[in-house]
Amino acid sequence: MSSTTADSIARATADARVDEFFRDGYCAVERAVTDERLSQVAEAFTRFFAAKQRRARMTGSDLANHGKSRWNALLPSTTDFLAADLIAAPPILAVLEGIRKRLGDQRRWVLRLAGSDICLPGSVDQLPHRDVGTFDVTCNLFLTEVGEESGPTEVWPGTHQHSAVHAVAPDPHEFLRDVPLSPDEWIRLSAERDSQLLTVPAGTVVIRDQRMIHRGTANRSEQDRPMLSYNYSLIDDIAPIAYRSIASTALSITSAMRRRGMRLSSAGRESGASFFAAADVASIEFLRAAATDRLAKRRLPIDVWDQLPPHARDLLRLAAPGQDATRYLAQRSLRATASGVRDALAMIATIRRPPR
Question: To the nearest whole percent, how much of the chain has pLDDT over 70?
């Protein structure tokens, strides 16, 4: 097969996946990572996760930090997880670029978050939910084969545009000021639409719109189901000054608010859930206001940075390579924070108050 023919097939495949993404809210790319590389990543993740459990002194299958037998964990800044063949794999970048062009957006993709989701045996079904109310893209890399018994993600195709969940914004990047639905409303909505279980081979990457309704399902197998999560956003530049001077303080306040909401909920107070929801939304918006997130809160080891090609470095431009991050970070005024604060306040104002 000639290189021209191969390129044409690759473009057609990427275009078809972009069509699926806009229609359903997600698409799947099988064998996005080679078997050898997948084995290396899986082994590295097993070591990382075991060490994290030991540090947290939570090694039982029922003990976790994200619900019963479920863990969320930020990935360390190492070549095991922040390498070009993971964060900038050609079939994934082809879909991301297709999405950007279809939107007509001139901004560039940036990797905002590198995390993981581990579903242990004994986990239970989550409530259906969407991650955020604004347009962002998550790429989930499944390190093991996922069958119906091993906690597959359940998705409701098309709900990234469902009017019962949020208004369809003319600008896909416009902040969507909706009242979050209650658990009963989520369940009712999910009952009205067909869902699909994402049973996929190991090495599959699912690219999804974070607004799409989904949930983790129960892991009834005897094996862990690890999944890496790489979150991408379209931004023009970065706002470290805003992050350091305003967003970090605001995030400290909203984190305290979240803890307060959790305590109120644990005490049976109806206001706890709304309090937590408001703080959670505010936290997200302060992060977005600074055009940064957890990756930018830590320095990227220079050996990790040096092994990245230019296109992968561009995706990681929010991170701070080496000790002197100034030239990578100090590039934007406080206007981004002002805009984000307005968005956060508008969203908080829409949070439904519980009846007295």
Answer: 64
